[in-house]
Write a structure and sequence with these properties.
Blueprint lengths: L16 H24 L4 E3 L19 E7 L1 E6 L2 E6 L3 E4 L6 E5 L6 E8 L2 E8 L14 E9 L1 H5 L1 H12 L6 H22 L9 H12 L8 H8 L3 H12 L3 H19 L4 H7 L5 H12 L3 H15 L1
Parallel strand pairs: 1-5
Antiparallel strand pairs: 2-5, 2-7, 3-4, 3-6, 7-8, 8-9
Length: about 325
Amino acid sequence: MPAETREPAVAGVGEAQGGADAARRDFAGVLEEAARGLAAAPERLRRARSVGLHRRWPRAHFHPTPELFIQLGGATRFEGPEQRWELPAGEAGLMPRGVPHAETPIDRATAYEMVVACHVRSGFTLIRAHAPRERSGTAAARRITPRAILPVTSERGRDAFRYLDEAERAWAGGEREGAGELAVDLVRVFLRVLAEETRRAGPGRRRYSAVVEAARAVVRAHLADPRLSVDWLARAAGCSPDHLTRRFRAETGSSVVAWVTAERVALAQRLLAEGDYQVAEVGWACGFAQPSYFIRVFRARTGMTPLAWRRARAAEGAGNA
């Protein structure tokens, strides 16, 4: 099928009612099944250790919020500072905030497929991903790519990510009796809340075409990944790069690259205001591979370096106290 006529990957945004309902039911079912699986077999929950936080690592990125992976087929190999582990089909994996990780898709008895829950400002985004083989046919060329995306606007769902933070703290304090059980229970609560909010959500009002909405949803869930590219976004959105570029500019008045940069700078401003990261760490969390490039882009957008912007914001806050 020609690239420009494939169905966009975005689900539940401006779709016909039946299609949107089916997408929400599908994602909610995955979340509910994962919660039931952990109740029956708590050992199905794995997690990355909170080590090497906020560091650069080859092919890796980190997020300022936690994520939860649900492996449906194949396996995902996670690699980062001081750790390497695999998430097989039928299990869930907790990625704590700030942990650098590279993801490698692996086919096993079943083809690679997974669902990931990502925090966004307006709620959360659920992504069902696969790993299509590139033309080279080599495993090294494969990249995990969204095939269905469901953005959910939900304050309750957004706030539920605190359960993942609490699960990580419980797990890290494993010397306490029952810490592992508490961590599993917290993740199960998280899954149930997201499933409820997914089923409750109505069809989103679409401001742009499905192709552009898909690209925007994927970007907001992957701002930390320095490998974001128009080619990869086009595959996720179900179209060719040229088609996405034309539609994006026609509908938003901006190029894809300029909009991604603006989103990254906006995220950087939020993280700088929070004060939990060094300037270089903020850049890495926002997908800037080099601190010098981050500083240059940030200054071009705001008129100040990140450090100067942080100090000005702090002084403004002190003046209003």
